[in-house]
Design brief:
Blueprint lengths: L1 H15 L6 E2 L5 E7 L7 H7 L2 H4 L2 E7 L3 H9 L5 E5 H9 L4 E10 L3 E6 L12 E4 L4 H12 L8 E4 L2 H9 L5 E5 L2 H8 L3 E6 L8 E7 H6 L1 H20 L1 H11 L8 H5 L1 E3 L2 H7 L3 H16 L9 H4 L3 H4 L1
Parallel strand pairs: 2-3, 2-4, 7-8, 7-9
Antiparallel strand pairs: 1-2, 4-11, 5-11, 5-12, 6-9, 6-10
Helix pairs in contact: 1-4, 2-10, 2-11, 7-8, 10-11
């Protein structure tokens, strides 16, 4: 029912959406409105801003930060932002609902940076039976939880689902409101630091590629502003070059942007694989499209997040990473 309501909401918003139009700033740079969240996988955009990469590319990128996926989706589909950072399965859900979009960039794959955390005494997924589990429905947390339960021969019916934003799930666990929480970094490390009794029960590295993020753009915006999208995609590649050349500096920028200490997020960064320009050029129209995306689609269908099929090849536009 949750998946059906999410799809209905996306369809309604799609019907209301106007054609977004990039506008030049007073200094002549092109304004791009971007929807994002405090997830370290989106961090290279902050490097692009701090290092002047956007400015050098003639861009003025206005990053608006949201707490949950639903807010990001609504802002993008309604035309209040031009581009959005979303999970791969979210892009599929948009396409299924008839939203004309394209994935133009692979941003990251999570290994240990998305996880189910629980206190001592809950040592396996089977131990979650009858327990209250906090997670954000329709998101990567939903995907991860469903996969973990299925792997253990269980379903959502075997637990007590407690819906809430991933940002709040760890807090609810620390406060004793729930028995386990599904969330992502930096919230995992924050919870573990607050309560020494907590540990990681299950993480995304059990199925590499399941949790991934992409940049989506409407078909109209691509048609009207291809040079702007090219400059944005190229800026990501340059930001990753900067990050790889000086990881401590790059991590400091990202940690500051998400409101955390870089040292405390060291293991969190180790649990994220960023995709640079060369990897995007090789994989967006290759292994990511042909291997990773079918895996995500299958998991989302099994979880009931996707209720039908999607045309993966029609969802990807690799022209910008190829350039």
């Amino acid at each position: 029912m949750v998946a059906a309501l999410a799809a209905a909401a996306i369809t309604l918003l799609a019907g209301c959406a106007g054609t977004p139009a990039a506008t030049p700033a007073a200094d002549g740079t092109q304004i791009v409105r971007m929807a994002t969240m405090p997830w370290i996988g989106y961090g290279p955009w902050y490097i692009a801003e701090t290092d002047g990469i956007f400015a050098d590319a003639g861009l003025s990128v206005e990053q608006t930060e949201f707490e949950g996926d639903a807010e990001v989706n609504a802002a993008f589909i309604s035309g209040n932002v031009d581009v959005a950072n979303v999970a791969t399965h979210t892009a599929m859900l948009m396409q299924q609902a008839g939203v004309p979009i394209k994935i133009v960039l692979i941003e990251d794959v999570s290994t240990t940076a998305d996880a189910i955390i629980a206190p001592a005494g809950i040592e396996s997924i089977a131990d979650l039976a009858g327990k209250k589990v906090a997670y954000e429905q329709g998101t990567t947390s939903d995907l991860l939880l469903n996969y973990a339960l299925d792997d253990a021969g269980m379903t959502l019916d075997d637990i007590v689902a407690v819906p809430m934003n991933a940002a709040d799930a760890g807090v609810a666990l620390i406060g004793g409101k729930v028995d386990a929480a599904v969330t992502y970094e930096p919230y995992i490390q924050t919870a573990l630091a607050e309560d020494a009794d907590l540990g990681v029960l299950f993480s995304a590295d059990k199925l590499p590629g399941l949790i991934s993020d992409v940049l989506v753009v409407s078909d109209d915006f691509i048609a009207e502003h291809p040079d702007t999208i090219q400059a944005l995609v190229s800026s990501w590649g340059l930001a990753l070059d900067s990050y790889n050349a000086d990881q401590p500096a790059g991590r400091a920028i990202i940690a500051d942007a998400v409101g955390e200490d870089a040292a405390a997020l060291s293991s969190a960064f180790d649990g994220v694989i960023f995709y640079d320009g060369a990897q995007n050029a090789n994989e967006l129209g290759g292994s990511f499209l042909n291997e990773a995306m079918p895996l995500v689609r299958k998991a989302a269908q099994s979880a009931g997040i996707l209720t039908g099929d999607v045309d993966l090849s029609a969802l990807v536009d690799p022209q910008f990473v190829a350039n």
